[in-house]
Amino acid sequence: MLHAACYVLYEHMNLNKVFLIGRLTRDPESRTLPSGQAVSAFGLATNRVWINPENQEKQEQTEYHNIVAFGKLAEICNQYLNKGSLVLVEGRIQTRNWQDQNGETKYRTEIIAERLQMGPKSTAGQKSEKATDKSEQTTETIEEIQIEEAPEEEIKTEDIPF
């Protein structure tokens, strides 16, 4: 039997926190709310790899996530991210609903980004690290990007323009 104080604690404990590391499936879509606040939306693909215990074969499953960022974080997404970018997103899950033109209720589950950390810049187009002449190798300095946190104010889902 639970002690009364423990019961109260568990009754009020909730957590809605998501950490995802993946690659953008499309360039961020930039919008502005009627309030003037920037919004950025993009898709993120994450992979799960495991060994099938029955046949010892490697299995892989890809999940696709809808990410939405607001304010300064949205501006950073729009400026620095593009399709294929590696990114860590920290946020919360939110499902919104609306009526379509036929009166059907539609649902969309999204990750509301609260923090974001970018991976290394793409090395596409750079010379291979195995180049024989060291003077021909290209090294890239990765900029330090300040991680911005989303504001604590509540965002109304009806204000989201997509």
Account of the protein in words:
Residues 124-146 have low confidence and may be disordered. Helices cover 12% and strands 41% of the residues. Strands 1-3-4-6-5 form a five-stranded mixed barrel. The N and C termini lie far apart (48 Å). It is globular and about 55 Å long. The protein has a single domain (15-122, 134-159), classed as Beta Barrel (OB fold (Dihydrolipoamide Acetyltransferase, E2P)), CATH 2.40.50.140. It is mainly β and 162 residues long. It has helices at 4-12, 71-80, and strands at residues 18-24, 29-32, 38-51, 58-70, 86-99, 105-118.
What is the compact description of this entry?
The protein has about 160 residues and is mostly beta strands.
